[in-house]
Amino acid sequence: MTDISRRQVTLDEVAERAGVSRSAASRVINNAPHVSKAKREAVQRAVVDLGYVPNATARALATQQAGAVVLAISSDNPQVFADPFFAEVVVGVNSVLEETELELMLLLATSTRGQTRLEQLLRTRQADGVMMMSTHGDTLAELADKADVPVVFGGRPVNFEPRFYVDADNRGGARLATEHLVDKGRTRIATITGRMDEGAGTARFKGYQEALAVAGLDAGRVAHGDFSEDGGSRAMAELLSEHPDLDAVFIASDQMAIGALRVLTDAGRSVPGDVAIVGFNDIPSARHTAPPLTTVNQPIQALGREMARMLQSLMSGETPSPLILPTRLIQRAST
Amino acid sequence: MTDISRRQVTLDEVAERAGVSRSAASRVINNAPHVSKAKREAVQRAVVDLGYVPNATARALATQQAGAVVLAISSDNPQVFADPFFAEVVVGVNSVLEETELELMLLLATSTRGQTRLEQLLRTRQADGVMMMSTHGDTLAELADKADVPVVFGGRPVNFEPRFYVDADNRGGARLATEHLVDKGRTRIATITGRMDEGAGTARFKGYQEALAVAGLDAGRVAHGDFSEDGGSRAMAELLSEHPDLDAVFIASDQMAIGALRVLTDAGRSVPGDVAIVGFNDIPSARHTAPPLTTVNQPIQALGREMARMLQSLMSGETPSPLILPTRLIQRAST
DNA sequence: CCAGAAACTGGGAGCGCTTCCAGGCGACCA
DNA sequence: TGGTCGCCTGGAAGCGCTCCCAGTTTCTGG
């Protein structure tokens, strides 16, 4: 703080000013033992006098530790990250990383270029750990799981169970939502699924099926969406023409629910009078639709937090167990 | 790709296998001149055979270039980043960084710890450049502007004009919105401001004042909010009791507009019949309120993109000019 | 008061890569 | 054929830090 010098202050200069060897200075910086009290203090004084800050790069080279972890998001759609979902994940991740000396790197592996970068990252240990969010169970995911860098997954890709992951209880949440519909006395309950090549999509569909099986109801009214608002509209229209008798629909995302809601209203069906609907995700918009959307909330920040924690534990040599975070039903006026 | 060896492959190994010196190998890796065609090819072959990937850390140490830039967000509220706004900025930033060899680091400087980190970053050149989004014109911002690392600001802090920044035209957008209200024949136009300790807050207020001045209308109906939904509710209630005659209000954020809308409806005022309202930001929810919100859209991804571009230009020694991105009115049913 | 243990100390060898530099060598021109 | 120029080439010196190791000092306890 004292000296706004242009040049970077090095450990050698600190050592010299303190009248000790570089080794000694290094020891006090990393507060390692075997330094006399006098020298330790001399070094500390020199550090503040000179405004010394260790050079992270040099340290990384010497210790073979990058001092950074990366949050990698692999997808074919450059816009995915615009989803507020990830912003929340980042907040969670950051909250635990903040207690650490670790830096956070962001890798949006959307193009081939990004994918390559991720691969190299995995192979060359440029980061001390990676948090991977990959929607598709592509080869990249499996590669990541096998890499010798600690990797924890956020969410599970479809068709592939990583060794370490934290996921929201999508299946349980879907079951909850569907049961809620059953409890409301609905009997002809349809669903609009998400992308079935994503873990969340298949899991939520499974939850729907389970709940109806338990209730002894028909789970045959299904249309496939893609998590988007337009997809929801299309799927709802399809549902309406194939199964005009439906009296409720569980929709695998709020975005789709918003699209579906519009189609329903346009078709003259009242919500929840004629058909009750419940969404998933609890996005902010869900409370502002007409009627406000009953939906399933998942603890997104907690997801990020737990990913970071699990990564830490992995990095310190432990073998954590996968974690599934609870989801809960948020009841509003659409049911 | 060929060899999944545990150990990192080094330049020396490549050189040895290719039968050249390390210097030569280095030259071809960085495709520098002064290497014969034969050797160049030999090295290239060795690279793919061995699956060599340069060690970024070592390179960084040798070249004194980190190979990374950071996006720093300084705020006193750990939750700011949960705002989808930043997610979009990141998408924009990433889109240009993807063409580069640069890594993206994220620094959410919310705690004191984070602040310290940011300061050190600025002083020690651990990154080759920083994109700084700081709402308050605190000392940190000024420090950043003076740092010998290239720094570009996203948005302008209040009370302080950075040398390099890209910002949305908040003032122009606010003027647009207010003029729109005037055009609709409203004459008793109030405003709910954002936080006046943020650049966006003051700029939008200024735009409001300008528009009314031009129209020769009274700009005295103002209540201060804090950009949040609750703050909007409170401010609207205040407005209603202080200036019950208002027939329109320009609200400095959609979040506040949503809160205000509820208060208005509860108070029995119809929108836009009794009072027309326009928000700012064009968040997704804005299209789902009842009635859908007229608002001002700002090109957020473009903001990120331009920040990254400006930073690049700065890093390559140029002296770019500040940039102000246009905002535009999105007309919906609330006016 | 002495042997042995324990704590300190600084030298030096890296970590993997870039880059300066001096020497070598072939080509080209007169 | 000799001289010059310019392009290769590899050796070696770092970039700033960690950490092993051997040597020195200080401190025990008997």
From TrEMBL, chains A, B:
InterPro entries tied to this protein: HTH_LacI, LacI/GalR-like_sensor, Lambda_DNA-bd_dom_sf, Peripla_BP_I
Keyword Transcription applies: yes
Top-level division of the source organism's lineage: Bacteria
HTH lacI-type domain span: 9-63
Organism: Kribbella antiqua
Keywords: DNA-binding, Transcription, Transcription regulation
Gene3D superfamilies cross-referenced by the UniProt entry: 3.40.50.2300, lambda repressor-like DNA-binding domains (1.10.260.40)
Listed name of the protein: DNA-binding LacI/PurR family transcriptional regulator
One function term, GO molecular function aspect: DNA-binding transcription factor activity
